[in-house]
């Protein structure tokens, strides 16, 4: 669930090319939000640009609105939760994930409508015994739908149940808090960025890695279905950032946006392509080269670029040969 700073880029002739079919300009650009001294005009340009506003806010506010206004029962229906309500939401979320990840997979890997334009790694999605049924795609779809969508649905039901019963501070009223209502959509990706860094480092703690996170890391090359392909324990931990809404005044649209960014957004950030492009221009920002580096080199880039925790805590890999050598040296001295 993360994106790079670059809206576009061109291949550079560095030795890093031996790893990648295409990569953004290296070293990876830093997002101009947590920079010192602050550059406010660059910050505003970034927040209103194609990667942040166009790749995150707009698409997942749209999916949240569609789900809230057209496919969610009235909040009073959540006062008493029963199995039929959970199954109804689960089927809706399976449909949403299938449309989103399946649509991206069809576009890039079946119809190949973009060829290999802006594709990071041109090795095929794997047929390998380590995957369920020996196929990465089947394996990734299984863990995404059977576990990921189930945990997502349970969190969603729990939050709505709490709001319906008045246990949490929600329901934020748009008319009373218009600025905060909009600001929440901007703040959520930054909050989840911090949460992701720390829970991801926890997931690399060897006992937890072996039990849970190793399953996600079998994907060293990525496709849209890889994003949410995780062990149930990892789903519980990864999606736990949603619990912030039990203590922060929120509207159900914020909760749905937060969930969709972490679930559907994982499909886009793992798509394996930088963007959907039309006539040579990026029209929809997708893949995260920053996270693609994590899948390839493992002990780096635990976070995403919205908050530079990797730089602050010395785990950053900016894609250059020097960075890769530094990460490898760390591995050899720690093992
Ligand atoms: Zn990891
Ligand atoms: Zn990943």
Rg over CA atoms: 20 Å
* Content-based structural category: mainly alpha
N-to-C series of helices and strands: HHHHHHHHEEHHH
- Please count the helical segments: 11
- Give the fraction of residues assigned to helices: 40-55%
The first-to-last residue Cα distance is 29 Å
**Sheet bearing the most strands, described?**
2 strands, antiparallel
Strand order of the largest sheet: 1-2
Q: Which ranges are low-confidence, i.e. pLDDT below 50, for 5 or more consecutive residues?
A: 2-16
Count of individual domains: 1
Number of strands: 2
Morphology = globular
Throw out a few tags for this protein.
single chain, 335 residues, mainly alpha, two-stranded antiparallel sheet, 11 helices, disordered N terminus, binds zinc ion
What's the helix and strand layout?
Layout: H1 40-47, H2 53-70, H3 83-110, H4 136-164, H5 178-203, H6 206-217, H7 232-238, H8 252-269, E1 275-278, E2 281-285, H9 289-297, H10 309-312, H11 321-334
Antiparallel strand pairs: 1-2
The structure holds zinc ion (2 copies).
